[in-house]
Amino acid sequence: MGEINRTAVAGIGYTDFSRNSGRSVERLALEAIEAAAADAGIAASKIDGLVTYGLCDTSYTGVLATGLGLKELNYFADYSAGGNVACAVVLQAAMAVATGQANCVVAYRALNGATGIRYGGSGWSEMMATTGLLSDAEPQFLDTCGITMPAQHYALLARRHMAKYGTTNEDFAAVAMTCREHAAKNPRAQMRKPMTLDDYLASMWIAEPFRLLDCCLQSDGACAVLVTSLDRAQHLQQKPVRILSGAVGGSPRARGVMWTNFADEHAECYATALADGLFRRAGVTRSDMDFAQLYDCFTYSVIAQLEDFGFCKKGESGAFFREGRAGLQGELPVNTGGGLLSEAYIHGLNCVVEAVDQLRGNAGERQIPGAELGLVTAGGAAHSGSALILGVQ
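Structure (tokenized):
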């Protein structure tokens, strides 16, 4: 049982996604994990591994193991990291299962991102600069220039792409409108009201070239993904979703708060380093993908990843969205649940949940007919990220 592709997602769980959960982050995590166990048809006490990630805003594995009343915890991992590891934690769970460290491992993310710790501002920068992962001198220079939040970091990356390839705000709008169109068919989504180009253009500037509707939501909530062996999953209550391949990494010049400030080319992202190996190890091609859940912390992040994962040439993502090719009836449906822009910002793990729903055939009005293979990514336009290829083949 040493192969990743002999592991599978057997259960998914999630809370409601809201602007005010009224519950602690621990309570949210417990709800999502218990829901994932129930979805798989096992008692939560059967879980013997936990993996999570966060930036001083989550409930960590030791707390959850106690809260769940686990009989044993054979494997745990707590990443001090952001959305770039949303796929890596599922891969980590799969590796623990594949190597016999544990039998049933849950990857989860819980946060009160709307009512708790919120990204942006000098307080957030200070917190990031004093944690072990990000104890870098960089914020003292960026903060004094007013660059204190992710929107400002990513705005600089977007500007580089605009200058080099002619990308426009209308291209960004096409991404936002596509995600909203899909979210309208998703009962979980926070934002289901239709969005027009006029709505987009009327939204306030946050950090040029980003308007409000270029930016992901702030959400309270939690998601959990239960991973076990394929053999075991085949005897549980849901159709197994195989983990065919995974990758985590990126540029060797990934230093900086947004893991990209020292990159050689800011109009490219982590996918340039990971994509070929990811598809090769899964034994599939880009054209085999039935959908892609692309980490959309900002609209530009989708544009960068669509190109750098190899679905279109550089500078062509805008047209891909404007022409409807990323829609539910298009050649590659993107962010079928609405993504982080319109479903919720559960730091990317909700994109894995949506992929599992699609592959099980449980996505309702937004279901892609006959979906068997899908890509999930995490990391946006930065030079550090992770990805998964999931399938039911």
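The CA atoms of residues 240 and 267 lie 37 Å apart. The first helix runs from residue 25 to 40.
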